[in-house]
Amino acid sequence: MNAPPGIHPPMAMLAELTHRCPLACPYCSNPLDLKTRAEELETREWVRVFGEAADLGVLHVHLSGGEPAARPDLVELTAAASGSGLYTNLITSGIGLNEKRMDALADAGLDHVQLSVQGVDEQAADRVGGYTGGYRRKMDVARMVRERRIPLTVNAVCHRQNMDDIHCIIDLAVELGARRLEVATVQFTGWATVNRQQLMPTRAQVAETTAAVELARRRLKGVLVIDYVPADYYATYPKACMGGWGRVGLNVDPSGKVLPCHAAEMIPGLVFDNVRDKSLAQIWYDGDAFNAFRGTEWMKQPCRTCERREIDFGGCRCQAMAIAGEAAFADPVCAKSPHRYLVDQAIESLGVDFVEADFRYRAAPERTR
Amino acid sequence: MTGPVNERKASLNMASRPRLARGVRMREDKVRGRTVLLAPERTVALDETGIAILNQLDGKSTLRQVIDTLAETYDAPADVIEKDVVAFLDDLGARRFLEFES
Ligand code: SF4
Ligand code: SF4
């Protein structure tokens, strides 16, 4: 299939191999309506999708979830992705990996491991992850990755209840031998939407984190690369969500549904294609959901004539939907958005005191039915 | 087997023997008709110079030897080549894309 003019092939694919996960992070970006094991794509279907992705121009594949190690065929899938020429990144909580499996993954051509940490000590981390023993397991998995000289990224989702530990998070990443640290401020999609009060950081915390990251970047040059996703709700302009809708990447959910971003299903009226029915190329170039907010044609004011429209592409469609009430509106964090006041109200309504144990944990797929 | 790898601090000097770190690789990007360097969460499009430099990194040749080989191959003054190579590799080093055999 030939690429229509103006649409570039995707660079990256997030493969959500499963929604199953032993952890229960209260900010999990998986949808509230989790896919069950019975709905998941089979091995051969994923293998075909990896091949189609490589042909389409995808360079990086992120094997994610849920917890991808919950799939018994993870090694086979890694080998298939790698064999298609894709750069394979395993995004994992570490649970479900052991020495033998790590060896097999390394042999299968795994290029990179991204390990999530929920906190800087056992007690705090296991409370957030909702899984006793998780922290220790992670420390062990980090060692396994390091011993096999596979590059390691530590991923820390930062929120109100762990942001004050930012210095320790950075130290932990160095200790674990990570080459890269991702400090991602919590995004309010998926399960985070039901934990907003407990997770939303304060303005002071965000400023402190930004300063700490800047300092550490200088101090650790050549040792640790830090990628930082700041809190957009305290910013003047939104982020270029997904690098622009249908522009850089795509998500395939456990059941084979192809999404322009992991939260896109919350937008009513969008029709999502499935890899079981169509090729990835057809879906990327012709799919309704991908074309709905591609480019700048769909924009309304103030985005339509804004000089930043090709910089941030109007921000996040899902955030516009969630807060401003329509996906085609400007991202409400934008200072130019007539809905910015709603974001400000949400920030102001944050209680100064909050109950520590008050999370609503992510459920397991079968239990949400 | 080669010697131990300095995983912690990447420092470049004329005696170091750089090579691409595990998890960093050069690849043809057929769909876009170019060569890219793939690394964790990064894609770097390479130009002819970058490709030529990376092709010389084997973890055995010293930086000095890499520069001399390139100067000879491209019939260019070594000090000009040196500037390009050092700038390029310093950048890759800062991104943790390189390993150095010692
Ligand atoms: S965010 Fe937590 S619960 Fe969700 S998939 Fe990752 S480790 Fe599992
Ligand atoms: S008006 Fe729209 S395009 Fe302009 S900065 Fe705001 S969100 Fe971005």
UniProtKB/TrEMBL annotation, chain B:
Listed name of the protein? Pyrroloquinoline quinone biosynthesis peptide chaperone PqqD
* Source taxonomy: Bacteria, Pseudomonadati, Pseudomonadota, Alphaproteobacteria, Hyphomicrobiales
- Tell me the GO BP annotations in alphabetical order: pyrroloquinoline quinone biosynthetic process
Per the record, the pathway is: Cofactor biosynthesis; pyrroloquinoline quinone biosynthesis
Q: Which InterPro entries is this protein grouped with?
A: PQQD (IPR008792), PqqD_bac (IPR022479), PqqD_sf (IPR041881)
Q: Which UniProt keywords apply?
A: PQQ biosynthesis
What are the recorded GO MF terms, alphabetically? Answer: quinone binding
Could you describe the subunit structure of this protein?
Answer: Monomer. Interacts with PqqE.
